[in-house]
Amino acid sequence: MKRSYSRLAQFALPVLLAVCAASASAHGNVVCTKAPKSEWKSHEELQKKLVAEGWVIRRMEATNSCYEVYAKDPKGKRVEAFFDPVTFARVEE
Questions:
Q1: Distance from C-alpha of 19 to C-alpha of 55, rounded to nearest angstrom
Q2: Which of 9, 13, 45, 91 is deepest in the core (most CB within 10 A)?
Q3: At 4, is the secondary structure helix, strand, or coil?
Q4: CB 71 within 8 A of CB 55
């Protein structure tokens, strides 16, 4: 029995690490704006806009060039979305 767990671990661990690395690199590639932070609108403004459109916000974060939003969109789908902090345009990953 130990042997089968060992083989499973040898296979599963590299696959898990590859998936995590791919996911992390995808987030690192999202560029929303090159504008300086002094030109960014507040995340409170974005939150008000999204709530008015029917979004249910769980969490918001500012990255180097985006507002990253964890929410349910107006259709009720759980999403992680990126927005340009100057225009509030949604940016695709």
A1: 29
A2: 91
A3: helix
A4: yes
48 and 90 in a single domain? The answer is yes
The model's pLDDT over 28-52, given as tens digits with 9 standing for 90+, comes to: 689 999 999 999 999 999 999 999 9
Pair (44, 77) in one structural domain: yes
pTM of the model: 0.69
Residues 54 and 75 in one domain: yes
CB contact at 8 A, 55 and 67: no
CA distance linking residue 58 with residue 53, whole number of Å? 15
Total residues found in the chain within this entry: 93
Q: How far is CA 56 from CA 1, 31, 32, 74, 91, in A?
A: 47, 24, 22, 8, 18
